[in-house]
């Protein structure tokens, strides 16, 4: 899994829908997630550390959990199926860990309020992310090409014999 951070909210130029942009810590990959306007507003409020006069739904949930001794450990965006992202909230209640299905937009809004990490499964990153630093990606590919050009089969042979396999002397 890769830890992601909210880089901000963008707006789709075609249909004017908000997009949450998640970015990895190396700033090499960005993951765009289309969200609704209300969810984008909730995320922006959390990013700006705005405290509403009355609790919003995400605040209410976290306040309830606090009252009941439940803490949020992390958020995980774990799947992308038919252009829909899936996430879970991982909570702790004493020793009991539980995962709760959640829309990614709500999970992100809650994670920002609770100051917990947002993780994304590598397969989701591979499928849906966009490169942010193509020069670094190209440099990494070039280093790998050089490695492959200079590697030989003997580089993978162990220098001492395996001892777990029977020999002719063992009968």
Automatic annotation (TrEMBL):
Q: Where is the signal peptide?
A: none
Q: Name one Pfam family in it.
A: BFN_dom
- Which superkingdom heads the taxonomic lineage of this protein's source? Bacteria
Q: Which PROSITE patterns match?
A: BFN
Q: Residue limits of the BFN domain?
A: 1-132
Among InterPro entries, the record links this protein to: BFN_sf (IPR036104), Bi_nuclease_dom (IPR003729)
- The protein depicted here goes by the name Bifunctional nuclease family protein
Species per Swiss-Prot/TrEMBL record = Thermostichus vulcanus str. 'Rupite'
């Amino acid at each position: 899994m890769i830890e992601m951070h909210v880089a901000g909210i963008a707006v789709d130029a075609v249909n004017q829908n908000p997009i949450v942009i998640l970015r990895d810590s190396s700033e090499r990959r960005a993951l765009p997630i289309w969200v609704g306007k209300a969810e984008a507003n909730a995320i922006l409020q959390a990013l700006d550390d705005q405290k509403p006069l009355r609790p919003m739904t995400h605040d209410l949930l976290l306040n309830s959990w606090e009252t009941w001794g439940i803490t949020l450990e992390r958020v995980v965006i774990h799947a992308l199926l038919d252009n829909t992202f899936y996430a879970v909230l991982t909570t702790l209640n004493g020793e009991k860990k539980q995962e709760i299905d959640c829309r990614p937009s709500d999970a992100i809004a809650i994670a920002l309020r609770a100051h917990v990490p947002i993780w994304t499964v590598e397969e989701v990153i591979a499928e849906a992310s966009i490169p942010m630093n193509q020069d670094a990606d190209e440099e990494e590919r070039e280093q790998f090409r050089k490695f492959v050009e200079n590697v030989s089969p003997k580089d993978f042979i162990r220098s001492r014999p395996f001892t777990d396999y029977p020999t002719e002397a063992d009968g």
